[in-house]
């Protein structure tokens, strides 16, 4: 009788606990795979790069960042680590910040400890270093790994004594990548062009400006063409640009943008300044005809 009573009590307690256990499992929320699918949905639903970066970063911090803790990483399956890596890589594409790159290093360390790391993982880490202008680390990977899937990185020449937050650019010169300080001039006219040597519209703009005697002279003295950092250096394309359009100086942008409104999501993008103040901005270029408003924009910064 007593034993039967004990069994009845145990059964009753199990019925009380079990629903709570089931509910706890349900409270775990979406899987890593489902969260990654949601991140891609956000990525594809938003067209503007700045807003896309903001929303994807917000989602990452809420749904993926907690899994980066060492104890949490160790509990993930290799499959989940893969989805975590892909999510991290997606966010770095728009936000190559040191914190996210540190997360990637931790994920890859865990994959490596399980002998599950692949060449593409290391290639992505090198691209993240390049996108964040950590060129020395990118070059060190080449020197240490000595494998074909990593990009070749030229010799790096950094400026010393830069203030925190100082805007810089990187210029390809004689097989080296040189860092220079950069800021919008406080006096006189200036034109900043968000561009990319791989962009056909940017090359069409450069070609048209170079052929116009007046425009060419103005842009030669008062402009800079800046390409925002990405995971690819494309050294040969920068060198080809410099040979084709020597009067249009081009550089790779640093981590800190030259001014807050600078947007490289649409290239070419022209910014016209006078005495440090932004007067006009104009996106795009038609490859088949002369820009109809260029003289108007130049007039706005003093070129009548």
| Radius of gyration from the alpha-carbon trace, in angstroms | 26 Å
Number of domain modules: 2
Strand count: 8
Averaging pLDDT over every residue, what do you get?
86
Taken in chain order, the helices and strands follow as HHHHHHHHEEEEHHEHEEEH
Query: Any idea of the CATH topology of the largest domain?
Result: Glutaredoxin
Please give the order of strands in the largest beta sheet: 1-3-2-6-5-4-7-8
Q: Could you give the distance between the termini?
A: 106 Å
CATH architecture of the largest domain: 3-Layer(aba) Sandwich
What structural class is derived from the secondary structure elements? alpha/beta
> What shape does the CA trace take?
elongated
Number of helices: 12
Low-confidence stretches: 1-27
Which percent band covers the strand fraction? 5-15%
Name of the top-level CATH class of the largest domain: Alpha Beta
CATH homologous superfamily annotation of the largest domain: Glutaredoxin
Task: Report the helical percentage.
Answer: 40-55%
Quick overview:
With 304 residues, the protein is α/β, with parallel strands linked by helices.
Kindly describe this structure.
The protein has 304 residues and is an alpha/beta fold. It folds into two domains: 32-145, Serine Threonine Protein Phosphatase 5, Tetratricopeptide repeat, CATH 1.25.40; 168-299, Glutaredoxin, CATH 3.40.30.10. Helices cover 51% and strands 14% of the residues. The chain contains twelve helices and eight strands. It has an eight-stranded mixed sheet. Helix 5 (78-94) runs antiparallel to helix 6, helix 5 runs parallel beside helix 7 (119-131) and helix 6 runs antiparallel to helix 7. The longest helix has 25 residues, at 2-26. Residues 1-27 have low confidence and may be disordered. Residues 1-24 form the signal peptide. Keywords: Signal.
């Amino acid at each position: 009788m007593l034993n039967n009573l004990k069994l009845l009590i145990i059964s009753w307690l199990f019925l009380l606990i079990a629903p709570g256990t089931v509910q706890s499992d349900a409270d775990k929320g979406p899987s890593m795979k489902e969260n990654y699918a949601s991140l891609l949905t956000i990525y594809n639903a938003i067209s503007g790069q700045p807003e896309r970066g903001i929303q994807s970063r917000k989602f990452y911090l809420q749904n993926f960042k907690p899994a980066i803790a060492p104890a949490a990483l160790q509990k993930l399956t290799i499959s989940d680590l893969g989805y975590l890596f892909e999510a991290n890589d997606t966010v770095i594409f728009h936000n190559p910040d040191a914190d996210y790159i540190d997360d990637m290093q931790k994920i890859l360390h865990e994959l490596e400890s399980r002998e599950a790391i692949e060449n593409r993982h290391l290639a992505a880490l090198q691209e993240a270093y390049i996108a964040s202008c950590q060129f020395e680390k990118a070059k060190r990977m080449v020197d240490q790994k000595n494998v074909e899937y990593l990009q070749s990185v030229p010799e790096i020449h950094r400026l010393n004594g830069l203030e925190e937050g100082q805007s810089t650019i990187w210029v390809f010169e004689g097989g080296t990548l040189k860092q220079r300080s950069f800021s919008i001039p406080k006096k006189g006219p200036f034109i900043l062009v968000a561009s990319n040597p791989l962009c056909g519209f940017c090359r069409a703009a450069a070609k048209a400006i170079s052929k116009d005697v007046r425009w060419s002279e103005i842009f030669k003295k008062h402009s800079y063409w800046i390409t925002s950092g990405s995971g690819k250096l494309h050294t040969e394309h920068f060198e080809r640009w410099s040979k084709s359009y020597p009067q249009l100086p081009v550089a790779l942008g640093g981590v800190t943008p030259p001014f807050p409104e600078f947007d490289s999501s649409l290239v070419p993008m022209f910014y016209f300044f006078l005495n440090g103040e932004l007067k006009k901005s104009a996106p795009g270029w038609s490859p088949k005809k002369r820009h109809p408003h260029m003289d108007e924009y130049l007039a706005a910064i003093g070129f009548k």
